[in-house]
Structure formats: structure tokens, C-alpha cells
Amino acid sequence: MPLIVTLAAALGLALLLGYAALRLRLPALVGYLMAGMALGPHTPGYVADMGLASQLAEIGVMLLMFGVGLHFSVADLMAVRRVAVPGAVVQMAVATAMGAGLAVFWGWSLAGALVFGLALSVASTVVLLRALEARGTLESHEGRIAVGWLVVEDLAMVLVLVLLPALVGLAGTADASAEAADTPSLTWAVLRTLLAVGAFVALMLLVGRKLLPRLLWLISRTGSRELFTLAVIAVALGIAYGASAFFGVSVALGAFFAGLVLRESEFSHRAAEESLPFRDAFAVLFFVSVGMLFDPKVLLERPLQVLAVTAIIMLGKSVAAMGLVLLLRYPLQASLSVAASLAQIGEFSFILVGLGASLHVLPPEAESLVVAGALFSIALNPLLFSLVDPLRRAVLARSAWARSLDARPDPLAELPASTAERYLARHVVVVGYGAVGEQLVAALVAQDVPCVVVEQRRERVEALRAAGLQAVAGDATEPETLVQAHIHQARLLVVTVPDATDTYPMIRTAHTLRPELTVLSRAPNESEAALLVEAGVTETVQPGQAMAQVLLQRSLAQWAKGA
């Protein structure tokens, strides 16, 4: 019974070692990786079925990407395109150059060096999602940038995996055929891949967006919970497999777009809730499968090489990503978060190394080095995330250059000089331009109530200004941002962000600048609503109510009091 034994051994040992890791104040995934090492072929004792474990891990990747799609709209993806697309492309190029240069220094062939560099350039989506979920920042601005960045990386990897034989041929490998090295063949392969990916995306956005929500609606009418759960899992895995089999798209991207189109359904939250236990269980199997690949002998035989590979993954990639985000005029917080997000490698790296080995361009030690780099970077990635906030505070406290960089002039961080007087006094400041904020602002504009939007996503601010609305880019917990929104002369502050933990510092900042300010806010539940009122919120709106409409009514009532 290889499947049953593999599942029982992997989940059972992961449970024990994950618990032990938590007791030692380490991330639980360190225990999962150790469980994989114990079950792998490089340690004594029972050896689990490697083929089955890798397939189970792939299911975990599919379900996790499906869950991301359920929370990540097309608008979110387009909103971060200006940082995610150039950032991912340049960062991959820089990391590939660093890895390839290191491999050439070791005496590897040029083709093998390029494959090795590419394997170090792409981060693991699974690791990123677990880190963001653990910190509760998956839906934050930095979380959206990081997820969008990795979606671009995954799309690039689809192209690389298709073109790798041709690229190896162009690098002059003797084993590659002349046809693979032929430029017209390479051009046709690029076009064919782009057309296939484009066809899949178009099919999902045009047909899937209508068909899949309708399917969930029909299943939900039966009243059967197990059928609904079955439908969600079948859609996630079925579309992921279909994307791979018919369009050449990775199963991870196929599952992501399945979740993306289901997000349009009114049952998206229920679909996310029903699939959560499956996502968690199979994500554990992914980390176990990574640990099974690790051969501890590489630490004794090639310690300096392991150290160099880990340094490229955790330092080289991070510094490159941080610099790119700063060059694109994003704040220090966003640059540090994205840098921590990319400081690891995972599933695509193993696929690339395996393909490189099959093309006979990589030496035998390449896989061990990549797996060792993945193991250390995955284990240390939660630590990097925990250092983001302390590091930012320390850098700002000790470096005048960092403070000037963090507070550098940004045309989107303040209202234009030509802003009409009605938006500078007796106006409504709306924090957040998500689904609720968008509806509220549209209704306020329709009622001819002057309002200024405060939004962290610079792309949203650009779009708002292009539409003729008043908006500033920045974090509403920072006094400078609210000052630029003229909070000291505003009549009302409305907080539409969903996370109450972000709301408290906003209230404190706003009341420090203007103690008598009236504040309305969303609240996730009754207990949080009571705490928000204690913190100084005048009125709250909870999920059971039509948030945008209730916020509009109360905003108009409060605004009219001061007329």
C-alpha cells in the first residue's frame, strides 16, 4: 500500500516534528522539512515513495494557488503590473547572472551555468503564501505586489521550460540538435508558447468567468455540503490539469486562474473555506517532499558551495529586488517585504534542475546544491519576514539617507497644487479603495460630497487622479500621509480597510492630528466593533450589513451635522 503508507508516514512524522519545532520556537515548516529528510533515501530507516510524494506535493501547489486566485482579483493583478512585471524580469536576470557566474567560476559549462542560474532566480509560491498567511498580510499592498511578482515569475518559467532545450542548443551544447539551435525554430517555440498561454487566459476570463460561478450556484442549490466541496476541488484540480495537458501552462498557474475566475462568484468565500483543510494538508506534503530530496552529505563535501548558493538566494536576490522596488519609487516597507518574499526557492527550481540533468548540461552535484539552498532558504524565510519591521525601524533611526529615501518627494503622496478649495477643508477623507471604498467614493461623488482618498497602492491613486478624483498615496497610519490629505480641516474620516489591526494606528494618528475628528470604520465582528469604539471610532459597520450603503448613509449624516 505505497500511497497509504506514504501519506501516513509523511503526515504523522510531520505532525510530531512540526510540534517539536514550535516548542523550540522554530517555524513548523522546519519540522516538516526534517520529516522529509527522515523519510528520504539519504537517511537510514524507512524510505517513502519519492514519486508519490512529489505528486502529492504538486496537488498542494495546485490547491494553494487556487486559494490565492480566490483572493486575488484581475484588478489586483493589473494594479501591481508596473512593479511586478519589470521587477520580476530584471530580478530574474540579475539572479541568473549571479548563479551562472558562480557556476562558471566552478568550471561548469555555459549551458549548465545558465540553467543553474535560472534555478536560483525563481522563488517558491508555496513558501511565499505560507509566510504571508502566517503574518496576515496576504491581502496587504506588499502581499499583492509579492504575489503578482511571483505570478509573473511563474509565467516566465512556463516559457523557460518550453524553450530550455533550444536555449541549451544556442549555448553551444554538443548534445543539443541543430534543429533546437535553429533561430526560426526558437522563434516559433516562443510564439507557440505565448499563443497557448494567451488562449488559456482568454478562455478562463471569457468563458470560465461565466461558466464556473454558474456551476457553483447550481451545486449550492442542492443543499449538499459534500457536493459543494467536491465541486470546488474538482474545479481546482481539473482546470490545473487541463491547463497543463492542453495549453502547456503549469498546473500552478492553471489552478491560480481557476480561483481567479471563481472569485467573481458570490460563493468565493465559501469555496475558500471549504478547500482550506485540503490546502493545509497538501502544503505540508510539499515541504516533506522537499526534505526528501536533501542529501546531508553535501554539507560535508561542498560546504563553501552550499554557503555561496544560499547567499545568492537569500542576499543577492533580496538586495536586487529591494533596489528595484525602491527605484520604482515604492516605500522602504514595501521594498523590504518584497525582498523577504523572494529570498527562497522551491518547486520550479527542482523542475529546472531535473530538466537540465536530462539534457546532460548539469553536473551531478547541481541538484544537491539547489536542494540544499532551497532547504536553508525555506527554513530561514520566516525569520527574514520577522526582521522586516525591526530592520526598517533600525535603518530609519540610524541613517539620514534612509529617512530621506523613505520620505522622498512623491507627486502622488500629496494633492496637486491645483486642487480646488472644496477638497482642502470640510471634506471626507476615505482610507482604502477596495470594493467597499470604491462603492463609497462613487456614492459620495454622486451626492456631490467632496472627498479625498488615501490609498497605499500607487497604481490605484494614479487611476483615481486620471478619473478626476482627489487621492494621495501613502500609509494612513503615518502622520505625513493624513496631513497631505488635509485631515486637520476634514469633517469626517471613513476607514474602509478590512483589517481592524490596521485601523487602530490610523485612529490614533488621526486623533493626534485632530482630537475632535469624527471617525467611521468597518469592523469584522461585534467584539472588534466594541474595541474600535473604545479606541475613538464614532460608529462602526459590520459584515452583516451592506457596508458601502451603511457607510454612505452615516457619512452623509455626519457630514451634514457640520454643514
Produce a short descriptive summary.
With 563 residues, the protein is mainly α. The protein is built from 25 helices and six strands.
Low-confidence stretches: 173-181
> Terminal Cα separation, in Å?
76 Å
In terms of DSSP E residues, the strand content is under 5%
Radius of gyration: 25 Å
Number of strands: 6
Overall, the morphology is globular
Main β-sheet, spatial strand arrangement: 3-2-1-4-5-6
Largest sheet: 6 strands, parallel
Helix share bin:
over 70%
If you had to describe this structure to a student in words, what would you say it looks like?
With 563 residues, the protein is mainly α. Helix content is 71%, strand content 4%. The protein has helices at 2-23, 28-39, 50-71, 74-79, 81-105, 110-121, 125-135, 141-170, 178-181, 183-220, 225-247, 251-262, 268-293, 297-301, 303-327, 332-341, 347-358, 365-398, 400-406, 435-446, 458-466, 479-484, 500-513, 526-535, 547-561; strands at residues 428-431, 451-455, 470-473, 492-495, 518-522, 539-541. Strands 3-2-1-4-5-6 form a six-stranded parallel β-sheet, with helices on both faces. Helix 24 (526-535) links the parallel strand 5 (518-522) and strand 6. Helix 2 (28-39) packs across helix 13, helix 3 (50-71) packs parallel to helix 12 and helix 5 (81-105) packs across helix 8. The protein is globular and about 75 Å long.
